[in-house]
Amino acid sequence: MHQTLKRMFLCSACIYLPIVAHAQEMELPTIQVIGSSPVAGDSIDRDKVPTNTQSLVADDFDRNKSASVLDTLSQQTPGLQISDVQGNPFSQDINLHGFRASATQGTPQGLAVYLNGVRINEAFGDTVNFDLVPSVAIDRADVWTSNPVFGLNALGGAINLQLKNGFTYDGLEAEVTGGSFGRIGSSLQYGAQKDNWAFYTSGEEIHEDGWRDHSSSRIKRFYTDLGYKDDVREFHLNLSAASNTLGVIGPTPVEELARRYSSVYTFPQTTENNMLMVGLNGKVSLNDDWAVQSNLYVRHFDQKHVDGNTSDVAACAGDPTQLCLGDAVAQNAGSGQNLSSSLLPGTGLNQGIAGSIDRTHVNSDTVGASLQTTYDGSFLTLNNHFVAGANIDYSSLSFSGSNELGTIADTTIDPYVVGSGITYQTSDGLIQPVKLRAKNTYQGLFSSDTLDLTDRLSATLGARLNIAQINLSDALGNSPELTGDHRYARLNPLAGLTYKLTPDMSIYGGYSEANRAPTPLELGCANPAKPCLLEGFLVSDPTLKQVVSRTYETGLRGHSTVNADSTIDWKLSAFRTDNSDDIVSQPSSVVPGYGYYVNAGKTRRQGLDAYVQYRTSDWSAYTTLAYVDATYQSNLTLTSANNPEADANGNIAVARGDKIPGISPWQLKMGGDYKLTSALTLGADMLANSSQYYVGDDSNHNAKLAGYAVFNVHSDYQLTKTIKLFAKVDNALDRKYATYGTFAAVGDIPSLGLSNPQTITPAAPRAMYAGFNVKF
């Protein structure tokens, strides 16, 4: 019976595991489990984990019928916020305790994200493209607020996503959805098991015109898994692929939005993401106590980004027949010849309205492997859970960027950049075509041990050694400063205690450290004298220091059965994370629209999380309340040229205690579902965020971006045993609000008549969707 109970406890796909000892006719308490490392196949009792965690399963992702994994993660995870920087529902940022995982190049990343045990922070800038995640195939998601075992970037925590397989999903299911903004989507999934073999496959496709001008998107995602399992072994071979085109129109001046809420500032702005990944993972039980888990993968990622922008190219002061950017002459990048100011007669250049179409291309191939061993047995007669492992990830990537000279027609809405076909550069080398090659090698050694000192008290000790090697080389020969070798290493400890106050309630406290190494993007853009277009251009590589976080956390949590028909889960936690040598992006005071990265001393995130969920057979409800106080802990001088409070040099003075912008301190979430009849279920969710400072207002001297509350409703009706109808309304009260705001130079297009530098990415208005689901 000992071996049987152990296998039930180690079920990584389960959250609730009621264990019954039939011989003694004694029912033991329900156990919630969570994977203790990114490598699948290992689980530990959540009550023995000295940090805050949140787990969501497939039904949670199916509940709101969202095409993005982030909507579900943000709904019920305390302290996790969505920030829409790019204006696309499939390519948003998340913010957990003030740390970001973003698809936007140039955003300092602070969260590690794993998919089937593979770290999917991209090799070039540690960005996370959640549009590549097959939402229909998600089996469960675990959110950790601190655990160094999850490696690089786990400054504010980690998100561990596990996809379905034929052992966890059985049946054939098809779904079709349509609704607002021209959205039409469909998905198909199938899973089956025969003897020791199982197969699962899924595909989904979504098209949406977008509610803002020029913001259409197309999503195509595919995933399949072939598995084998017997009493001691389990292996999975899986493949995932995606091909997505996203309209990412970004922030728009508030004055322009006041004229037409769907308008954009400049376009075209598009991103094409393509990904292919093959993985092989397995686990083998050596005996009742020891097991080995492994993971191998190969991943290809290709991203092309097009960004239409204004430009300061104008007739040269010394020679009006030629084009200049400041004092530098604009040249044809192909021939090196100076460009004439009479280029493209009768268009924007002659009227002083110049434009640029900036293109970047990232292509990366990554191979990686993980191997770990776990022990669930006894040590000196005490129950013990031990895990130790190693991993290596090697990436070879190329990055290229170029500027095409363009013009912007005299318009009062939606400025469109028309390209000339000429790739240009400047004689001072600040703007020029770039091609970078990089090789990243990330290695890790980790170990963690949880020992039950008594039947109530458990102690955890662990550590992870991270080693990062980054080699950069200039492939064109015109940016020799890019070439360089960088190496970072750090040992991050973990320690904590948990204590069961009652069978249904426990208290915990812990301390952990984590680090992240600067990315090739940041290392290639760290010289204030040679700034970069942050979506792309790299010119030099002064060494940046790695970021180190130190987190203290304590909390209470409980889960219990109220009666035969209802359960309650709750938790309350407090945290403080201190960062040293934090990296921030800075707009350039040398070239408008460009920027660079710097170490910005010490920063701090501290706050509280509260969560409660109540479930019965007929209804469920949840509430979360979170507070995060994110501040600078060093006196700094930062650049923010478009900030109305900046000095003549474009600088702002940041004092210790000033709030880090772009983070809402308070967040309240509420929601629930009610089964009106055996066939009809109604549900609703509410999300409220407090006001936040505009990005670029690090000195906190300007008005804040307003807070908001948004309500969503949904319903489903089981028409027959196999057919379900569903509908939902997002932003049911049609609120106008924004989750992201910054400052921009708005005088570059005189015909728009703009004077307010505040720009925001507005959230979508009321949207209605409906569809049907067929499951056999």
Largest sheet: 22 strands, antiparallel, barrel
Poorly predicted spans: 1-26, 534-542
> Quick one: overall form?
globular
Return the domain count: 1
End-to-end Cα distance, whole Å, is 36 Å
CATH homologous superfamily annotation: TonB-dependent receptor, beta-barrel domain
CATH class annotation: Mainly Beta
Q: What Rg do the Cα atoms give? A: 27 Å
Q: Can you count the beta strands?
A: 46
Quaternary state, please? single chain
Q: Given the structure, what is the number of helices? A: 5
| CATH architecture designation | Beta Barrel
Q: How much strand content do the residues show?
A: over 45%
User: Mean of the pLDDT scores?
Assistant: 88
Can you describe what's shown?
With 776 residues, the chain is mainly beta. The chain is 4% helix and 55% strand. The chain has a 22-stranded antiparallel beta barrel. Strands 6-12-13-10-11 form a five-stranded mixed sheet. The two termini are 36 Å apart. 52% of the residues are buried. Mean pLDDT is 88; it is low at 1-26 and 534-542. Residues 1-23 form the signal peptide. Belongs to the TonB-dependent receptor family. InterPro entries: Beta-barrel_TonB, Beta-barrel_TonB_sf, Plug_dom, Plug_dom_sf, TonB-dep_rcpt-like.
